[in-house]
Amino acid sequence: MSVPRDDGFVHLADYTAPAWRILRVELQFDLAAESTEVSARLQLQPDPGQPIAPLELDGVDLELLAIAVDGEILPDTRYRYDGRHLRVTGLDRDCVLETRVRIHPAANTRLEGLYRSGRLLLTQCEAEGFRRITFFADRPDVMPRWRIVLRAPHADYPVLLANGNPVSSSDLGEGRHEATWENPHPTPGYLFAIAAGPLERVTKTLETVEGRRVELNVWAESADVPRCAYALGAVERALRWDEQRFGRGYDLDVFNVVAAQDFTMGAMENKGLNIFNARYILADETTATDADFLAIESVVAHEYLHNWSGNRVTLRDWFQLSLKEGLTVFRDTEFSSDLHSRALKRIEVVRLLRGRQFAEDAGALAHAVRPDRFREISNFYTLTIYEKGAEIVRVLHTLVGETAFRAGMDRYFADNDGRAATIEDFLAAHEAASGRDLAQFARWYSQAGTPELRITEQHDAGTGDYTLTVDQHTPPTPGQAEKAPLLIPLRFALYDADGTAITTPPTPTPPNSPEWSS
Ligand code: SER
Ligand code: ZN
C-alpha cells in the first residue's frame, strides 16, 4: 500500500508492490490479560524486481524488548521505531528478522489487535489491527504462511485457538501449557486470529466432497453452549452449499467459530477461526424468531464463504474491499435464496438498498464501490461497498447468466488462488469465461450515485410496434459532477389484451447514442 499524500489521503493510483516479501512467520505468544509477550520470526525476501530499500514494518504502540537479524542482536544505529513504524536499514538479501514485544490486552479498549473480553483473550485484525500485535507489513498483499504457538496458564486459558490446523499441544509444567497451530495457506495479517480462555463447544465431523475429514466447532463460554447448535448447523449448510453451487471445498482439518460478547464488527472471517459477535451465533430454540434464525444463518454463511472470496483469493489493497465484501454478500444472498424463499430474500435486500444504501449514495458521504482515495479504510465498511457491491455482481450474473457466471467464478478462483487480486482480475476472469467485453460495465465500480431511470412506453395498434424508451440520469455526487451512462440489464414481458403472455421475444433495438459504447 502507499503512504498518504500531502492531502492526508491514501490514493489508489499510488499503489506500489511491497519492496520486501514475508514468506513465513513464526509467532510465539506468552498470554496474560495484563501483559502479553509476542516473539516473531519473519522470513524476509527482497522483491528481485525492485531496488533494495530499507525494511519498513508497521507496529503501533508496541513495547520493543528485543530485535535481531539472522540471530545477531541489531545495534540501535540500524533501526528506528517511532511508535507507528519500524525502519531497519542495511538489509540487502533474504534474512530472518526476530522481534519480541510486549502488549497489554486488558488495557486495549479499541478492541483492535489482541484484547480481553470477559475471561477470554480475542483478536480483531481487519483492517489494520495486526500491527497492534507485532511488527509486520500490515497490508493485504503480504501473505506469508504461519506457525503460531500459544502459551498460557492452563487454569485461566484451557483452550488455545489460532488460525490453521492444530499440530501439537503440550504441558509445560507449573500449570502452563502450549498449543501449536500451522496455517499452510498464504494469508495476510488482517486474517490473523487467536482466541484463548474457558471455551466449550458443540462439534461435528464431516467429510468434504474432496474427501477431507473436517471437524466443525462452535465455541462459547459454557452457559452459552446450548445456544450454539443452530449456528453449527448453519456452518455445515454453508460448507455444503459452497461445494455444490460454486464447487469450492473447505481446505483445513478444522473450522472453528467463536462467539464473543465484546466484538466491534458483526463477525470476522479469520482463516479457519471465525470470530462472531455473540448475537449472530446464539439462538435459544424456544424464544428465537424466524428472523433471528435467518440472520444467524446468513452471517455464519457470509463468514464461511469468505474462505474462498477473501481468504484464498485476497485483496491487493484496501481499495478493492468490495472485491471480497460485495462478492461475499452476493454469495451469502444466493445461499439464503437457494435454501429459503428467493422472493422474500429479494424483498429484504431491496428494502435495505432503497431505504439506506440509496440514501448513502445520495448524501455527502457518497462514494464509489471502489473509491480512489481514503483517509481511514475503517470508515469504508459501508452499505455501498457491501450491498451495492453485491448488486453489481448481481448485474454481472444477470448479463452473462448462471452458466457463464459460474465459469467466470471458477476462472477467477483458479487464476488468483493464493494471490492478492484486484477488481480488474475479477472482470478479466469473467470476460475470458463469457467472451463479453466488460469495459463499460466496469463503470459501476468507479462511479458513485444511484442512476435514475425514466421509462416511457408506446404501442402503435396500427403497426403493432411496441416501443419502450429508457432514459438514464445519475445526479452528481461529491467530487463527481459528470456522470457516464451505466449498463443496466432490463428484463420485461409483454401481455396481450387477454392477459396472455406474448411468447415471441421482442427484438431490442441496440442503443445507438455515441456515448453508450464509449
Ligand atoms: N470482514 C468482516 C465481514 O464483513 C467485517 O465485518 O465479514
Ligand atoms: Zn464480509
List the helices and strands and how they pair.
Layout: E1 10-11, E2 20-30, E3 36-46, E4 55-58, E5 63-69, E6 72-73, E7 79-81, E8 85-88, E9 95-103, E10 113-117, E11 120-124, E12 145-153, E13 159-162, E14 165-173, E15 176-183, E16 194-197, E17 199-207, E18 213-221, H1 229-246, E19 254-260, E20 267-268, E21 273-277, H2 290-305, E22 314-315, H3 321-339, H4 342-362, E23 373-374, H5 383-416, E24 420-421, H6 423-434, H7 443-446, E25 452-460, E26 465-473, H8 514-517
Parallel strand pairs: 2-12, 18-19, 19-21, 22-24
Antiparallel strand pairs: 1-23, 2-3, 3-9, 4-8, 5-6, 5-9, 7-8, 10-11, 11-16, 12-15, 13-16, 14-15, 17-18, 20-21, 25-26
The site of serine has 9 residues, from strand 20 and helix 2.
Q: What does this entry look like structurally?
A:
With 518 residues, this protein is an alpha+beta fold. The protein folds into four domains: 20-190, Sandwich (Immunoglobulin-like), CATH 2.60.40; 199-288, Zincin-like (2-Layer Sandwich); 315-446, Neutral Protease, domain 2 (Orthogonal Bundle), CATH 1.10.390.10; 452-517, no CATH class. The protein contains eight helices and 26 strands. The strands form seven sheets. An eight-stranded mixed beta sheet has the order 6-5-9-3-2-12-15-14, with no helix packed on it. Strands 17-18-19-21-20 form a five-stranded mixed beta sheet, covered by helices on one side. Strands 10-11-16-13 form a four-stranded antiparallel beta sheet, with no helix packed on it. It is globular. The two termini are 31 Å apart. Bound molecules: serine (SER) and zinc ion. Residues 126, 265-269, 302-303, 325 line the site of serine (SER).
